[in-house]
């Protein structure tokens, strides 16, 4: 009896719901404009709640910044208004809703592991991100995300198939869409050309907080490259060129090796307030700061953005002039070369080497480094005896040997640019090692586990610095070593947590194995190399001369912006209308990998050569064979892969399947 009553009630409630839904559907059909207005406001609020990781903060944004909230809603209104032009308008509405909710959820996930919100650049580097996603998310989380993506796509397809066609009032709908498009374009164009807004986005997180996610993400998608400066013209650039070229290039005998070491998420943790350590986590760096020139380095990133710090160091250009969240490695440098410190040093006879103990395809370095003028690039795929952290990042100890190899590889002077990875987030929220050496006492228990893990990785990085400086001090050639952090770690550190400087400042230090007069002062990342060149007595290079001689001028940064535009997007007036910088024939690894012989013993084939690593894959007649790494000179495959006459190559294959390099063919035959 009770079950019958319950079923009756359920049927009655369901009938009411269906009737209400039908009534609402009729209202939507009859009032499409009202529908998209309401939906735009609701979606704008939902997106902010997700991206701010708080319902309360979403409403705070609505009431404290109503104009900016309406700007976000208006952009959504424009997109939704396009649906009025189609008979299956609800399908398009649903697609737009899924996309923006998906982006909001992606930002929710992203900001859990770093301080920088989602921008278009993150979409562009997605292939690289996929290869390291397991370091940030558990298998369960990855599976859930995949299921949600599949579910979302399935729902979109289902809605498109099932939705009935609606009547389209083309004239009215066209006017609404055209007006909203014009107003939306006006809002974004005015924003891009507003100096006030541009400054607010110097630290991308502040801009997103102030102006909202939808608005900011759209700006990151259309505000790309460097805007043409108002004063840009042939005469203006000729005047700049003549002014810089008045500075006579010094004639020097380059007998000093230069090593730049970019340390992942490295900074002096003694700057933190209300934090004590069981012992000094960075004793070597502390000692070095007591004995060598050092100062603060202003970097363009916080919590993430290694490539942009790297870009500023190598090009001596300011990333502030690029679009919101833009990564030049994944935009303009995909299509062109430009003046870099490598091309300047090569004029003096230097060989230029890049080293990074992470995968070579990340940020497209295996391609971009040729445009930057490097001669060789040693990525993780070319390294042996690599230790990894509990979070599976390569430890930095391996870099000491790789730097020495680079220095040994030529008879002349070398420039070595090494990028470390050990200090990289994500930092765990559970203890992975009960025997961590450094214990941390902090007033924030919430982040203690993650911070203690980070500090212990920092301590090992400091051990590496001790090993490296010891090895270089014994090297029989002159070396100047510049070490610096690329950005602070993604550990929810704010300026208020620091005793001095800011979250956009790390430290740099100049060390040498010979007596050199060097002074250090606080500087920008794009100025650092020119300061080191001054220490060495070098001044060749257009940007080097500009930084060394004009940094005190009132128009210094304006001129820098014009030079960057002219070099990358303009007519290259300062280079007589041509691009003199030819991409190098980038060699992966210091020494070329080679196959010397193949021995068949029973069912086994042993490939002998040199330079093999765990990322080496044997190809037989162009087809990849299952390969077992034995050691740096031996690989194993099954003899069944070998045909009577065969051709073997060995390829270094990145985690994403990209072939970074391949040996010369070895031809053999089975008797």
Averaged pLDDT, please? 86
Which residues form runs of ≥5 with pLDDT under 50? Answer: none
What is the 3D form? globular
Beta-strand level of the residues, as a percent range?
A: 15-25%
Q: What does this entry look like structurally?
A:
- The protein is of the alpha/beta class.
- The chain is about 45% helix and about 15% strand.
- The chain contains 22 helices and 20 strands.
- The protein has a nine-stranded mixed beta sheet, with helices on both faces. Strands 14, 15, 18, 19 and 20 form a five-stranded antiparallel beta sheet that branches.
- The chain starts with a helix and ends with a strand.
- The mean pLDDT is about 85.
Which secondary structure elements does this structure contain, and how are they paired or packed?
Elements: H1 2-30, H2 32-51, H3 55-64, H4 66-81, H5 89-110, H6 120-124, H7 126-132, H8 139-162, H9 170-192, H10 195-200, H11 204-211, H12 213-222, H13 234-245, E1 256-263, E2 275-277, H14 283-291, E3 294-298, H15 306-315, H16 341-347, E4 351-356, H17 365-371, E5 376-378, H18 398-408, E6 414-419, E7 440-442, H19 448-473, E8 478-485, E9 505-512, E10 523-524, H20 528-536, H21 542-550, H22 556-568, E11 587-588, E12 594-601, E13 604-610, E14 616-620, E15 623-624, E16 628-631, E17 634-638, E18 645-653, E19 659-662, E20 666-669
Parallel strand pairs: 1-6, 1-8, 3-10, 4-5, 4-6, 5-11
Antiparallel strand pairs: 2-7, 3-9, 8-9, 12-13, 13-17, 14-15, 14-18, 16-17, 18-19, 18-20
């Amino acid at each position: 009896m009770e079950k019958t009553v319950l079923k009756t009630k359920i049927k009655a409630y369901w009938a009411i719901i269906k009737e209400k839904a039908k009534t609402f559907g009729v209202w939507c059909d009859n009032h499409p404009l009202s529908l998209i207005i309401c939906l735009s406001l609701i979606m704008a609020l939902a997106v902010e709640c997700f991206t701010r990781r708080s319902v309360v903060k979403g409403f705070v944004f609505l009431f404290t910044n109503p104009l900016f909230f309406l700007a976000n809603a208006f952009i959504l209104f424009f997109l939704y208004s396009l649906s009025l032009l189609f008979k299956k308008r609800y399908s398009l509405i649903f697609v737009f809703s899924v996309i923006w909710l998906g982006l909001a959820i992606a930002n929710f996930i992203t900001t859990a592991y770093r301080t920088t919100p989602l921008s278009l650049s993150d979409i562009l580097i997605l292939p690289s991100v996929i290869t390291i996603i397991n370091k940030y998310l558990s298998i369960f989380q990855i599976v859930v995300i995949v299921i949600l993506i599949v579910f979302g796509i399935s729902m979109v397809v289902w809605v498109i198939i099932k939705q009935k066609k609606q009547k389209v009032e083309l004239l009215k709908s066209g006017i609404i869409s055209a007006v909203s498009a014009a107003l939306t374009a006006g809002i974004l164009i005015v924003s891009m050309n507003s100096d006030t807004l541009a400054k607010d986005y110097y630290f991308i997180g502040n801009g997103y907080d102030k102006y909202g996610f939808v608005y900011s993400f759209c700006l990151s998608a259309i505000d790309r490259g460097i805007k043409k400066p108002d004063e840009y013209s042939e005469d203006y650039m000729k005047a700049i060129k003549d002014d810089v070229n008045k500075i006579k290039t010094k004639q020097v005998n380059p007998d000093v090796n230069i090593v730049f070491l970019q340390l992942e998420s490295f900074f002096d943790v003694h700057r933190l307030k209300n934090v004590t350590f069981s012992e000094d986590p960075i004793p070597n760096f502390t000692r070095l700061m007591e004995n060598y020139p050092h100062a603060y380095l202003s970097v363009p990133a916080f919590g993430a953005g290694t490539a942009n710090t790297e870009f500023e160091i190598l090009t001596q250009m300011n990333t502030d002039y690029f679009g919101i969240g833009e990564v030049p490695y994944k935009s303009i440098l995909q299509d062109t070369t430009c003046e870099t410190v490598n091309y300047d040093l090569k004029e003096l006879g230097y060989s230029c080497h890049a080293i990074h103990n992470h995968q070579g395809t990340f940020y497209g370095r295996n391609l971009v480094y040729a445009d930057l003028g490097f001669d060789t690039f040693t990525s993780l795929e070319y390294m042996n005896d690599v230790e990894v952290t509990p979070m599976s990042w390569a430890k930095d100890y391996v870099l000491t040997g790789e730097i020495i190899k680079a220095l040994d590889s030529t008879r002349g002077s070398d420039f070595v640019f090494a990028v470390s990875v050990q200090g990289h987030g994500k930092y765990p929220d559970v203890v992975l090692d009960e025997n961590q050496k450094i214990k941390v006492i902090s007033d924030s228990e919430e982040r203690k586990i993650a911070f203690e893990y980070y500090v212990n990785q920092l301590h090992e990085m400091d051990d590496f610095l001790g090993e490296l400086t010891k090895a270089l001090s014994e090297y029989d050639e002159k070396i100047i070593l510049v070490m610096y952090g690329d950005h602070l770690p993604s550990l929810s550190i704010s300026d208020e947590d620091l005793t001095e400087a800011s979250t956009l400042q790390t430290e740099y230090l100049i060390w040498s194995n010979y007596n050199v007069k060097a002074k250090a002062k606080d500087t920008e990342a794009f100025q650092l190399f020119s300061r080191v060149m001054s220490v060495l007595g070098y001044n060749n290079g257009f940007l080097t001369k500009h930084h060394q001689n004009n940094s005190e001028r009132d128009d210094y940064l304006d001129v820098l912006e014009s030079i960057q535009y002219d070099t990358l997007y303009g007519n290259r007036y300062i280079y007589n209308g041509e691009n003199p910088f030819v991409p190098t024939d980038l060699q992966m690894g210091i020494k070329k990998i080679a196959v010397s012989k193949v021995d068949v013993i029973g069912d086994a084939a042993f490939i002998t050569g040199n330079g093999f690593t765990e990322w080496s894959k044997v190809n037989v007649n162009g087809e990849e064979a299952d390969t077992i790494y034995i050691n740096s000179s031996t690989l194993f495959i099954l003899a069944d892969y070998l045909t009577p006459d065969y051709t073997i190559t060995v390829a270094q294959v990145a985690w994403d399947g990209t072939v970074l390099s391949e040996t010369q063919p070895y031809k053999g035959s089975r008797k």
